[in-house]
User: Fold these one by one.
Assistant:
Number 1:
Amino acid sequence: MKLPGETRQIRLFLSLVLIIAGALLIWQGARLKSVPPSTQLQDGRGRLNINVATREQLLEVDIFYPQLVDSALSRRQKRGYFRKEDDLLQIYGVDNESLPVVLQYVFY
């Protein structure tokens, strides 16, 4: 027969385990956000990795103007690395029409 004190200790222990598990899941999600999908600066087609390129490197691309580059870097800093096309659409100046052109010059 379990005593009331033992039941309280078991509940407290299980609550602590759940809190730790939740914290680990949150930490892992934040960690994934901080690790770029690729650390390579250029791919085999000569495109720049938008997740690791500097402002100066992005400005060397003919179609990129300062406001677009600053928007991309701001979005990367605030929300983490680009992982899909929808992420690129969050850049000021990039829309569904211009996205295929942008993808000719950058990858993620």
Number 2:
Amino acid sequence: MPAPLPRRLVEVIAVAAVGSRHRHGSGCIVNGRTVLTAAHVVADAVEVLVRSSTKHRWPATLDPRFVGELSGPRPDLALVEIEDPSFEPLPRCRSHESIAAVRK
């Protein structure tokens, strides 16, 4: 059974450096603990958190290999991985299921 779209939508919070302001953006859990978000939110982050609609926070890992370009030919997209094993992984998101959920 696919996870409903609202359960997949999260807030991504990134800290660029010690003492700097947080950057916030939206994200979507696309598979397991993997979150798709915008590269401009997490680029150069030293810490990344993922927050659910219930305000629960989980630490996340940013792999620079999966961060697009802020300007250039690569898309402004990034993948982060929720680290906390207590987070129950979600099944792979299928676009036709998500679109149907939005239309309801």
